[in-house]
Amino acid sequence: MNRQDTIAMLPTGTGKSLCYQYPSYVNNERVLIISPLLSLMQDQVDQIKLRGEKRAAALNSFLSFKEKKFLIDRLEAFRFIFLSPEMLNSKEVLHKIKEIGIGLLVIDEAHCISQWGPDFRPDYLKLGELKRTLNNPCTLALTATATNEIRKDIAERLNLSGWKEWVFSVNRPNISLDVVKLSSVEEKEQKLLSIVSKEPSPGIVFFSSKKKAEALQAAASEQNIRSAVYHGDIENDQRILIQQQFIAGQLDWIFATNAFGMGINKENIRSVVHFHMPSSIENFLQEIGRSGRDGEPAQSILLYSGNDEFIPLQLAEIEKPTLDQIREFYVQFKRGKPFELIQQELMLSDTQLRVLTYYAENQSGTEWEKEIDRALEKRIVSKRQKVMEMKSYIDTEYCRREKLLSFFQETLFVNHNNCCDLCGLTKISVSEQSQQQINFSWKEKLDKLFAVRTNDT
Amino acid sequence: MNYFDSNALVGLDLINGERTQSSIYHLLKGKKTSQTIQDAQLFGISPLFQTYPSLSREIYDHKINHLEKSGLIKEIEQSKYIVTQKGKEQLIRFFSEKQFMFFLNGWKYHEITLLFWNRLTLMVQTTSNLIHQEFQFLPINRDVQSQNWVRHKIREYGKDLSNYASELHKELTNLLSDNYPDTPELIVQKLSGYGMIGLTNRQLAEKMNCEIDEIHMRFVNGLHFIFAIIEKNRDHYPLLFNMMELQVEKAIPYTKSTLETKKYLSKNFSIDRISAIRNLKRSTIEDHVLEVALLDKNFEIDPYVPKETAERINAVQSGSNRLKYIKDAVPEAEYFQIRLVLAKTERDGLAWKNYLQKNLGIVHSEQDKKKLYNQF
């Protein structure tokens, strides 16, 4: 509020968005929020609008050309403008933003700027320049999880001047921590099905594979568990339905990939289950942080069966393009071939294309491909390390909470009574919820929707 | 086999190896090029236009591959396929258990299908919440234009909103009651409103014990059915008809060259003369004329085809659209003339509607049709 550059590390679910909404009203200024997650961005806009503030808009690649144009033309009418980082490549957008002026620049998920973090987004490196272009507006970098060195990296790359740091504990005392080790995948599946029928809901089960999520949701559905699958392949309008059913209490369990739930405002999630282990402690904390936002007891259950770490380790390997791909990319890039064609021909993933494009635009030299290969190799090493940190959480023989906090140089001061399976857990008790039945026929449903009294005889 | 497969098979059967399999992809996806549009009309497959707008090329190719591997289609020339006997038998089996999508009319309704649905869902959600005194809710659809449309309408009705709500309720109930050919659950259970969020396609599929793809097709078929009813009875369904109206009547998307030719056509220049003036081949100008005939409802073909010839072509074509077949029956007609007549008369998708009977010999009575639908 007193116009000082700030890095704030707030655990998920502690009202990050207030940090920029409140100052905007006090200082009466326009806020530009850079956010890397498209679905999350739209959710945030919806939340702001729900509050009655209509001057919020999101500019991202979800929009059609026409919709984009429509918004850009009216951009000065908005107080809260959300922007995805790749939109910064549009001269038109940049020009317009400069023209209308920005009072506060907010970088959400700021750890994406750090090359040492697992979620590195090359487009984020342009943010330092953006800050200059916009005449150095006051900047707020938000992140839920970042180690000391990543925070320093953020400050440096954003050219923060005399910045302040607000670091809150990553500890969420109302979430109990449980790890269940099982001897086979089949056993793990059985365990999951028993969890979703017994443990308190609403809950989310996280998977790293869409197929597994679908298969187990189908199995749960056969046991009459009110559940749905949610992942990136599901069309946008269908995803909105699932989110809203979950918020409205029509569903008890969501079987999801990590695409789910960051932006939804549901305070009473009681359980977060991991069917596959997350690829880093940071991701783990973000995901379990979606539970217990109301402050009531909630739980994290991580299921582990032998060698589960191979999945995230392999994903990290696959994400790196081969030396041949890197070399060929550079050749074609220099010839000016369109990116879509290069991507198709070399079969690059979106992330691979993003990273290579960034390096190609910002670095050159005769040994380019070897340098880039080395740089990417380093990234794998750091990702591998992240996976092994996660594994050490699973394998710890002392307190899991202490272990988690130790990654952020925090120590546990207070003893918890419902801490983790190693310290001893008691079942969290939750008042039984009434299961809302909504099996109306189409006529009854139309009557209900429009509040028409039924005249059944 | 599912609906997607059956649609691809029927499409391939109707083009009968005269076009590559890509033409079906562009058709389902709804690509607006004059080639796709002409093919759609020429072979009577325009009802399938844009029935799978988010279809990816990879998935489509994969499915075609699978059809070939299963021996349902056969490649007769580089990427040109015909449906095999086995393919036809499977289609017969499929449609003896499943409803044929008689009411599909993709070409006619592709521009309003999604638009109407976005407006309807948002309108129902909004009025339902407002009449329950709930003023805060998350929109179920993120289409900005439709949101604005609804906002505008709500302002327009203002205090009369409860009146609007009961009228909309009445229109929907009437529309879905009488002759609606499928179970109305497929439409109504997808709607959201106060205290209830609509079901996803997957959830409907689970309830009805069928594939998601079938839910999608039956939904689109149902929408196209109600579009036709609403259009015919706009006095009975003023609110729903209002949702079908495009805000701006779109200019017909001619290609540049066709537009140039069209200028001369409107001055009654002959094809040969235009060809000479523009220094283009006669066949190119003919393509332009065809494009105009397909897109402009008011375009008269009489100057290019003698009435008698047109009548003879119409008499032959019933059901079959194959050019060569017609040419053999009406040898005096030029190919260009045949295509022109077909373009003019196939707007209703007659080949599609008659496909089952003509090509597979299946006849469903109206009773059978109703029975084919699973009950919700």
How would you describe what is shown here?
The complex is a heterodimer of chains A (457) and B (376). Chain A has 457 residues and is of the alpha/beta class. Chain A folds into 3 domains: 6-167, Rossmann fold (3-Layer(aba) Sandwich); 171-308 and 417-457, 3-Layer(aba) Sandwich (Rossmann fold), CATH 3.40.50; 312-386, no CATH class. Chain A has 17 helices and 13 strands. Chain A has helices at 18-26, 38-50, 65-73, 91-100, 127-133, 148-157, 185-198, 210-222, 236-248, 281-288, 310-318, 323-335, 339-346, 350-362, 368-395, 400-406, 442-449; strands spanning 6-9, 31-34, 56-59, 80-83, 104-107, 138-143, 164-167, 175-182, 203-206, 227-230, 253-256, 271-274, 298-305. In chain A, the strands form 2 sheets. In chain A, strands 3-4-2-5-6-1-7 form a 7-stranded parallel β-sheet, sandwiched between helices. Chain A has a 6-stranded parallel β-sheet with strand order 8-13-12-9-11-10, sandwiched between helices. In chain A, strand 5, helix 5 (127-133) and strand 6 form a beta-alpha-beta unit. The longest helix of chain A has 28 residues, at 368-395. By secondary structure, chain B is an all-alpha fold. Chain B has 3 domains: 3-97, Winged helix-like DNA-binding domain superfamily/Winged helix DNA-binding domain (Arc Repressor Mutant, subunit A, Orthogonal Bundle); 106-244, no CATH class; 256-353, Arc Repressor Mutant, subunit A. Chain B has helices at residues 3-15, 22-29, 34-42, 57-69, 85-97, 106-131, 144-157, 161-177, 185-188, 201-208, 212-232, 238-244, 256-266, 271-278, 282-295, 307-317, 323-329, 335-345, 350-353, 355-360, 366-372, and strands at 73-77, 80-83. In chain B, strand 1 and strand 2 (80-83) form a beta hairpin. In chain B, helix 6 (106-131) crosses helix 7. The mean pLDDT of chain B is 86. The A-B interface holds A 42, 46, 50, 52, 63, 66-67, 70-71, 221, 228-229, 235-238, 240-242, 244-245, 247-248, 250, 438, 441-443, 445-452 and B 54, 124, 127-128, 131-132, 136-142, 144-145, 165-166, 168-169, 172-173, 176, 183-185, 187-189, 191-203, 206, 376.
